[in-house]
Design goal:
The protein is an alpha+beta fold and about 300 residues long. The protein is built from nine helices and twelve strands.
């Protein structure tokens, strides 16, 4: 009986010791998750007297317990860990640098756009006898013309244009030409609120043949999506003349389509400008001179 009682007492003591050790381990795990630098653990007097901490800069080094000699006896690949810390530093520094570059580039683009707007005038009430070349020659008396873009208005037989000068003085001088008769109507000249959207250089004519093609080509916008390429060709051939090449373009984003129409003769392209405002399908189209030729499609099978 004495031996049984002694064994029971030993088992109870062992169970109590195990319960105690489990409680201690649970307390250690709980304390390890606490942040000793939290304000709850800092006396109010010390918090009031100590200066506020400043955030680290992007170039501040990253210190780690293992990198300063701590953790001795712990199995860890020091070289790999140091490389990881270095990569983290570079990633943080590059993040700040890339953000700065994007901000600077956006600021530069905005400044260029605003400068271009200040050098641009808006000309309205242009009839279809006025070409971009003639308009640029007239406004060249005010200063060097960088770009001239005539656009069609579907709600009027008249058109409008944007003219960009090399400097702001040329744009200011161009305002004095308001009321001058170009063709059959006096034009209005106002400061522009937008810049001329540049044409992708790779689409511009490069050879004399392509330049001649541009003279026979018009750019048509606001085309009804229900209209087919055959409809566009029949429309222009009936009113203007034989079409040599036509490219009808569209996507799922825009509600209308655009087309480049190349005629056999340049006179037909000039006549096509008078079609601006006419109904094709269910919408009035806009027709203006094209700045790019209609290049023939490349046969991929043949090129391969």
């Amino acid at each position: 009986m004495a031996a049984v009682a002694e064994g029971s007492a030993s088992a109870a003591a062992a169970a109590k010791e195990a319960e105690y050790q489990a409680g201690v381990q649970k307390l250690v795990d709980l304390l390890s998750k606490l942040n000793p630098a939290a304000k709850e653990f800092v006396p109010s007097s010390a918090a009031a007297s100590s200066p506020p901490k400043k955030a680290l800069s992007a170039d501040a080094p990253v210190f780690d317990y293992y990198s300063i000699g701590g953790g001795k006896g712990v199995s860890k690949d020091t070289a790999a860990y140091a490389s990881y810390i270095g990569s983290q530093q570079r990633r943080r520094r590059n993040g700040y640098m890339n953000h700065g570059r994007r901000w600077i580039n956006e600021r530069a683009r905005r400044a260029d756009r605003e400068d271009s707007i200040r050098r641009t005038v808006y000309v309205s009430e242009l009839d279809h006898t006025v070409t971009e070349e003639r308009l640029a020659d007239i406004f060249a008396t005010c200063g060097q013309v960088v770009d001239c873009r005539i656009c069609g208005d579907p709600h009027s037989v008249l058109r409008f244009a944007f003219i960009e000068f090399a400097d702001e003085e040329g744009a200011r001088a161009a305002l004095s030409l308001g009321g001058t008769v170009f063709g059959f109507y006096p034009v209005r000249v106002l400061p522009s609120k937008t810049a001329i959207l540049p044409v992708n250089p790779k689409f511009l004519p490069r050879t004399e043949d392509e330049k001649e093609m541009v003279m026979r080509t018009v750019y048509c916008t606001n085309i009804d999506k229900m209209v087919t390429q055959l409809d566009v060709k029949s429309f222009f051939e009936k009113l203007c003349g034989e079409v040599a090449r036509l490219r009808l373009l569209g996507d799922n984003v825009h509600s209308t389509r655009i087309a480049f129409v190349e005629f056999v003769h340049a006179e037909c392209a000039i006549m096509a400008l008078n079609c601006s405002g006419m109904i094709l399908g269910t919408l009035p189209i806009r027709v203006s001179p094209s700045k790019t030729p209609v290049k023939p499609r490349v046969n991929r099978a043949a090129s391969n």
